[in-house]
Design goal:
The complex is a heterodimer of chains A (about 425) and B (about 250).
Chain A: H1 7-13, H2 21-34, H3 50-55, H4 67-70, E1 79-84, E2 87-88, E3 102-106, H5 107-112, H6 118-121, H7 132-140, E4 145-149, E5 159-165, E6 169-179, E7 184-193, E8 198-208, E9 213-221, E10 227-236, E11 241-248, E12 253-262, E13 268-277, E14 282-291, E15 297-306, E16 311-320, E17 328-337, E18 343-352, E19 358-366, H8 370-377, H9 383-399, H10 405-421
Parallel strand pairs in A: 1-5, 4-6, 5-7, 6-8, 7-9, 8-10, 9-11, 10-12, 11-13, 12-14, 13-15, 14-16, 15-17, 16-18, 17-19
Antiparallel strand pairs in A: 1-2, 3-4
Chain B: E1 3-14, E2 17-28, E3 32-36, H1 43-51, E4 56-65, E5 68-69, H2 75-80, E6 83-86, H3 98-112, H4 120-133, H5 151-165, E7 169-173, H6 181-193, E8 200-205, E9 218-223, E10 226-231, H7 233-242
Parallel strand pairs in B: 3-8, 3-9, 6-7, 7-8
Antiparallel strand pairs in B: 1-2, 1-4, 4-5, 9-10
Classes of the chains: A alpha/beta (about 425), B alpha/beta (about 250).
């Protein structure tokens, strides 16, 4: 009899995992029914997972990170939670100053003290084989952040979740963010890692109550041998708003999947992504926008700049259910290839069951525009500088969707470093 | 006066089709030359060849600029060395901030001239000074270059760039096209403010209108890839009255 990958680890590790024993068993059973999603699954067909399914990774061992190591990644005046190799590092975190009406805790703490988060946690995964790694995450989740913002509370300071991977192995992270009615909060994530091959499997759940707003910014700059599988699950109540910008720079194979349920009328969802690829990186951006009720608005802009033999994928599905009249859903995907050997795949998908809706999508793949380059050269810019400015401009258009200037600047610095390292000539 | 630009027997082709068929033109420092001609005569091709656009292949002849072989220089080298092309259709650069773009360009030119590169604050000072000279506000430069600008705003932006880059040879390709009378006055004022004894201007234009505001020293008529007549500003007035019929019979 064949055993699904990670069955042995789960049996051995589960006594020591924090809380939620029953939920973990159920989730593992769901995962085990399907195993790792194979490349025959449409939604996973570019994401080759065999290196991590076959590797039988163990949870990463502990290692030291000093304040100096993280200084460059901090957002000024943020409430910061630092996780090193999958565990919260209290000394490096500063969440004691959380304002009234906001609780920020370690998931391991919350589960260990027996709080029942399962009403939230079970909503992350269905029975679909595409959700198997989210179920595996529920089974193995080790730590993460639980952020709860009370009704009507506006959190000024961004809440910053910083994940450092300094060892090989796996990090199973789970973050739960709940914004109460009329509340607003900014949540940023940053992923950084070393040279070792490791696997980050991270699941974020965002619950945005009536009239609430979440600003989400994600910076994925994992090590170049890393596997990063990120899944975001967003539920929007009436009049709720979710605005997300995700930047992908790192990883050997990196996926950022966002599934949004527009459950309340007049909710708004803005999803944006930038992927910068080099070497043989694969960056897979997957979205599913499920408009279940009328008068919802969603727009998506995903861009990629690809060098060498890198490959970026955008798979964006919009579902407009029968009741979801007057939905306005837009998708755009634009790619610039810096090398002939780079590849972009674009797959917008529409499933529309309502008759009075607006749905638009557009996709482009190309090289840098020759007219633009000549115009810049005619002003004295050498071709390399001109290319760098054009690529930066292409990307900055997306970063402008980030409301916080501090976060925008930090992302910009990261991107500037990437461009500087490219031979854009 | 020293010769700034000397074009001899210039032939140029685009996609294998010869457009310029033997142009001779000498421009001295301090002079303003207008190149006029009907559509398709090769005016814009001449401007692009001078600026060094790829795809505009010089098949015969020579162009010297300040005694150097202009055709040996890349487009960006020419710009840094003081050749400025004002575009008929300025190009939009999405996401590229106008201030960043112009400062990068200005510093590339300054570096080439052995001048100190400007930091953000010094650049802003220079910009304000040039903008007040041209009676323009610098608001446009806070946006992405030319994106969402009206036709007039794009042309004013070209002149603002020109003022900051301080070129020696200004080649302005149909800068008057698409401008209403107020914009034309602002743009002309800018061009006039940048005239000087050590600078030269080549105005490429279809109409005489611009020349009422920027007075040329010489007017040349370009037809079917050749200069068919040269004269003073009265030539432009003649064209305004009679059209190109005396020079290009089929234009009647």
């Amino acid at each position: 009899m064949t055993v699904v990958p990670y069955a042995e680890q789960f049996e051995r590790l589960k006594p020591a995992l924090p809380g939620a024993a029953g939920l973990r068993e159920q989730a593992f059973a769901r995962y085990a029914a399907h195993g790792f999603p194979g490349m025959k699954r449409e939604a996973w067909r570019h994401t080759k997972l065999t290196p991590i399914s076959a590797a039988a990774l163990e949870p990463s061992a502990a290692s030291d990170v000093s304040p100096g190591d993280i200084a460059a990644h901090l957002i000024p005046d943020a409430l910061t939670l630092v996780f090193v190799n999958g565990r919260m590092d209290r000394a490096l975190s500063n969440i004691e100053q959380a304002p009234r009406g906001v609780t920020i805790e370690s998931l391991a703490d919350v589960l260990a003290r027996g709080d029942d988060l399962s009403p939230w946690l079970v909503q992350a995964a269905g029975d679909s084989p595409d959700d198997a790694l989210v179920s595996l995450n529920t089974a193995l989740m080790n730590d993460g952040a639980v952020i709860r913002v009370a009704d009507g509370v506006h959190v000024e300071a961004p809440i910053h979740l910083l994940f450092f991977a300094k060892q090989g192995g796996m990090n199973q992270m789970r973050n739960v963010i709940v914004a109460g009615k009329g509340a607003s909060v900014t949540v940023a994530e940053g992923f950084f890692g070393g040279k070792d091959a490791y696997w980050t499997n991270v699941v974020n759940q965002f619950f945005v109550a009536e009239g609430a707003s979440i600003e989400h910014a994600r910076q994925q700059n994992e090590g170049l041998s890393a596997y990063h599988i990120g899944a975001n699950r967003v539920r929007l109540a009436q009049g709720a708003r979710f605005n997300s910008v995700a930047v992908m720079l790192g990883g050997a194979v990196a996926r950022n999947e966002t599934r949004v349920l527009v459950a309340g009328e007049r909710a708004e969802c803005h999803l944006a992504g930038v992927s910068l690829g080099r070497g043989k990186q694969l960056h897979d951006s997957v979205t599913v926008l499920d408009h279940a009720v009328p008068n919802g608005v969603s727009d998506q802009v995903f861009k990629a700049v690809l060098d060498d033999q890198s490959h970026a994928v955008y798979q964006g599905k919009v579902i407009v259910r029968q009741d979801a009249q007057k939905t306005d859903a837009r998708q755009a995907n634009h790619n610039i290839l810096l090398a002939r050997s780079a590849e972009a795949s674009s797959k917008p998908e529409l499933e529309i069951f309502a008759d009075d809706v607006k749905c638009a999508h557009g996709a482009t793949v190309g090289e840098l525009d020759k007219n633009m380059l000549f115009y810049m050269q005619a002003r004295g810019l050498d071709p390399k500088t001109a290319r760098a400015l054009l690529v930066e401009g292409f990307v900055l258009e997306v970063l402008e969707r980030i409301a916080s200037p501090e976060i925008r600047d930090m992302f910009r610095t990261d991107i500037g470093g990437w461009l500087h390292g490219r031979a854009l000539s | 006066m020293t010769t700034m630009l000397e074009i001899k027997n210039l032939h140029a082709a685009v996609d294998g089709k010869e457009i310029l068929k033997g142009i001779d033109l000498t421009v001295k420092a301090g002079e303003v030359h207008a190149i006029m001609g009907p559509n398709g005569s090769g005016k814009s091709t001449l401007a692009y060849v001078l600026a060094g656009r790829a795809g505009y292949e010089v098949t015969e002849g020579s162009v010297s600029y300040d005694g150097k072989d202009l055709l040996e220089m890349s487009a960006d080298e020419r710009a840094r060395d003081g050749v400025f092309l004002g575009f008929q259709y300025p190009v939009e650069l999405p996401g590229v901030n106008g201030m960043t773009f112009l400062r990068t360009a200005a510093n590339a030119v300054r570096k080439h001239r052995g001048l100190k590169e400007l930091d953000g604050i010094d650049f802003l000072k220079l910009l304000r000074q040039k903008a007040s000279l041209l009676e323009m506000d610098d608001g446009l430069l806070k946006r992405a270059v030319n994106v969402g600008f009206s036709g007039g705003e794009k042309k004013r932006n070209e002149i603002a760039q020109m003022a900051v880059l301080d070129p020696h040879l200004m080649v302005l390709d149909e800068t008057d096209s698409g401008l209403d009378i107020d914009a034309l006055k602002v743009v002309s004022k800018g061009i006039n403010a940048l005239r000087g004894p050590d600078k030269a201007t080549v105005l490429v234009t279809h109409y005489q209108r611009l020349l009422s505001y920027v007075e040329p020293d010489f007017v040349h008529i370009l037809a079917r890839g050749k200069i068919v007549a040269s004269g003073g500003k009265e030539l432009a007035l003649e064209l305004e009255r009679d059209g190109y019929v005396n020079y290009v019979p089929e234009a009647a």
